[in-house]
Amino acid sequence: MQESSRSLFRLAILCLLPTALFLWLFSILLFALFVWLPGDITGTIFATEGDQQTIASIRVALELEKPFPQRYIAWLYAFLQGDWGKSELYGLPVKTLIAQRLPISLTLSLTSFLLASVLGTTIGVWMTKPSATSKALAIFVQLFIALPSFLVAIALILVFAVHWQLLPTGGVSPEQSWLSQARYLLLPTLALALPQIAILARFSEAAMREILVAPFITTARAKGLTPNKILIRQALPVAAAPILALSGMQCAFLISGTVIIESVFSLPGLGSLFLKAALARDLPLVLALAIIFAALTLLANAIAEMLAKILDPRRTTYDEIPAL
Under CATH, domain 2-320 is a member of which superfamily? Predict the structure, then answer.
């Protein structure tokens, strides 16, 4: 038991170390991109007017004239100390803005992820059974694979908000209670989750069909097990590892999808905040949000990879994990 715990710890370290290294390299690339591209936040503040002396004084106050290495090291040191800076666009601490918008984005992303994982896997398993229902589900899957999230969002708005007037199109406030937000977040959650449900369903079906021709499944049929027991007890546990790995990768699509979905539904979340900050070249806010998005994506992938390796011993063995 102790050796197993040490092996799991080594596995966690090996999965998380590349994540930390990538985040550091990602921060350098993003910082350099914003510094070296022409224009800065003063172009947003003084879009139509402003004398050169005033603009120059603001650039000095915001330390925009300092060399890139000096600016990056100062930002990185402060960021690691917990000082994420002040938004140049909103004039508020970055942490305050993120804390205000985080609940809506977190609810939207987690709900979409759970919905996509559960329904995608269930539909994929069901599609392996020869029936009229599985054929109808295959049509559903093919339709939503071909449609991007923003088109799904527009279609949902037209049907459920404009035509039937059952649900609002957006406009939720961060101060509202969770129950009050549920009606406003239902359509965005569906718009974000439906394409990912279709992708995971197609992948789950392919993974299950590959396993259903394996010798141990033939043995299970020879023993007289029912098709449902073969699917749930025999095939699904083996297919769980690759399905779980894909679910982790889908987190990247869900997080990036919030930028578009929150803009379509006018949701005050991190996605819409990131879009406004990027367009305004608000460097402190963009860096903090980008690091958060990247960290959540990489962490989800690392956890999914760890669980996949634990569930499927063929992917790795504890003996193959080097000692630290």
Answer: MetI-like (1.10.3720.10)
